[in-house]
Amino acid sequence: WCRVAAGRAGAAPRAASCRGGAAMGRTATVATCALNQWALDFDGNLARILKSIEIAKYKGARYRLGPELEICGYGCSDHYYESDTLLHSFEVLAKLLESPATQDIICDVGMPVMCRNVRYNCRVIFLNKKILLIRPKMILANTGNYRELRWFTPWNRARFVEEYFLPRMIQEVTGQETVPFGDAVLATKDTCLGSEICEELWAPNSPHIEMGLDGVEIFTNSSGSHHVLRKAHTRVNVVNSATAKNGGIYVLANQKGCDGDRLYYDGCAMISMNGDTIAQGSQFSLNDVEVLVATLDLEDVRSYRAEISCRNLEASKVNSYPRIKVNFALSCSDDICVPTCEPIQWRYHSPEEEICLGPACWLWDYLRRSNQAGFLLPLSGGIDSSATACIVYSMCRQVCLAVKNGNQGVLADVRRIVNDETYTPEDSQEFCGHIFTTCYMASENSSQDTYNRAKLLAEQIGSYHINLNLDVAVKAIVGIFSMVMGRSPQFRVYGGSSRENLALQNVQARIRMVLAYLFAQLSHWARGMPGGLLVLGSANVDESLHGYLTKYDCSSADINPIGGISKTDLRSFIQYCMENFQLTALRSIISAPPTAELEPLADGQVSQTDEEDMGMTYTELSVYGKLRKMAKAGPYTMFCKLINMWKEICTPREVASKVKHFFRMYSINRHKMTTLTPAYHAENYSPEDNRFDLRPFLYNSTWSWQFRSIDKQVSNLESKEGKPVLEDVD
């Protein structure tokens, strides 16, 4: 079925396209997919892979591409070190090789492979029980949330193939003792295919560049790419540009869903040709298996390349790739009347739609895979907790829509979650009442306005709503302290110090966390229903960055769907929900000033606001966050950038004061990130401490050297403007 052609002068033809394409057919039908794989769920992963292959074959595809590391799931992390992960991956591969579903179609699957005691992230490409090629990843992702160099080694031997000795369990199925392992391409009877794996597409020296110059006509990319707000444009542009300059067909597969951690892999499988999008997969959906199939005219690639003179000049001197000759065609000999796919316009979601759909899909995966009965949310009547409630409501809408559209997997999950084998969700509000509990936790510092807002929103989304007052518990806790220490702390308005004021606020906040977990564990029991609830947090990314939260308060939860989203984007999302879900309760919520309601009211009205407490606006916080993380700016560089960005609204001295205040608060509160609730990753300036933003949590919060550098620049600028120079900037 295959043999390796060296690709040097005098060897076998360098590309199938060197032969007469028309005689063997000109239309190739290829399939790609987005699979909701789950780390280490080998049974489920196998079933989803087989289903995708069956769908691809049913739709006439002759080649099927799957996501990166789809056999074991991308997010195995340190489980990649375990020999079990390698063993079970090969066991799944054996099942795939034996399956009738994988016959007469080239299957391209992802799994870890050890070669010479080195672990590689690989593609295993096979046809009719024969492995054609094991292609290791050459450029590993190692930024942001990605840590591939921790577990894998890149294959650094470009255009080199060696023999890989197969495990005995695979030899028994394939009858092969060794197979090609390395950097090669496949030459079928009618075309030539080359593989890239995720990060290789994004690298400045992507393999598809020289593969295309060497006659490869179809590029494939298996990805494990996660969602970030406003990222889809970049991904689509990178894929289309790969084929615009060099011609060719680009087929991209991606994982989708929550596979066990903070990331949501957002699908967007696609097929591109000659710079145009040909097929688009969904970015957010509850379908575990989504397959895209396209029929494309190979002659369109050849004619497109023919007029690119500079490309052809470079192609004449490129070093050739080893070719695996495959006795198989992606086209039929008589395909003159077969219709081909035409370019389409990619449909992008707005950021508000992304917030509405992405975290909701992530929550659904987490709920159904955690075997819990629903969610509990402390609903304060403010923007953050209301946004979280709207995301759960969006999840319920998507579940009802999926069931209406005949998704039997979603229906089965719903019935298991509500413990009713006859139940069918038809109305999102009714379903919300089954799986979502909201709880307004009032204190003597809570206003009637927030009580009313929370109550009305709960009614409109259909959640089971609880009202409680925690004053008794607060007084009991403070009473214990007073009895032991002989002193009673007071709020600032009653003559207390800042320390007393903060401690009394923290007691209220932490009791809310204790009550949230108590009600999550027992509220269903009290209602005569089985199961427990997952507690949802609702601290946004800006509050986490500043540290404007109480450690172990309601920000401490099981998961947080908005923890990676800015306050600015959440306000836009609330507006979107108000308009698209007809949730009129949100109108008063979006117009109210954000407040923690932890200090005494003034004549029944809120006297405390978030921005006054923080000493900065949420808009400023977003700017600080993006400069700190995305622009890699320390205090001095942030100051230098902001004196230009804010020159119309702030003097250099004012900018210096703002920057210093931010870094003081950030460094004092950084320890809170070590206990931050796992949150949906949505922003590239997230301060999440687990993997994405690795920093100390004990700082010298005076930043003495850095702040002196800022002071010197302020003095220099003021002296140039003829202003009196002050010794220090507050």
UniProtKB/TrEMBL annotation:
InterPro entries: C-N_Hydrolase, C-N_Hydrolase_sf, Gln-dep_NAD_synthase, NAD/GMP_synthase, NAD_synthase, Rossmann-like_a/b/a_fold. It is an enzyme of class 6 (ligase). GO terms for biological process: 'de novo' NAD+ biosynthetic process from L-tryptophan. Pfam families: CN_hydrolase, NAD_synthase. Its EC number is 6.3.5.1. One of its GO terms (molecular function) is NAD+ synthase (glutamine-hydrolyzing) activity. Pathway: Cofactor biosynthesis; NAD(+) biosynthesis; NAD(+) from deamido-NAD(+) (L-Gln route): step 1/1. CDD domains: GAT_Gln-NAD-synth (cd07570), NAD_synthase (cd00553). The keyword Kinase does not apply. Keywords: ATP-binding, Ligase, NAD, Nucleotide-binding. One of its GO terms (cellular component) is cytosol. Residues 28-298 form the CN hydrolase domain. The keyword Iron-sulfur does not apply. In the C-terminal section; belongs to the NAD synthetase family. PANTHER family: GLUTAMINE-DEPENDENT NAD(+) SYNTHETASE, NH 3 /GLUTAMINE-DEPENDENT NAD + SYNTHETASE. Homohexamer. NCBIfam families: nadE. This is Glutamine-dependent NAD(+) synthetase. It comes from Chelydra serpentina.
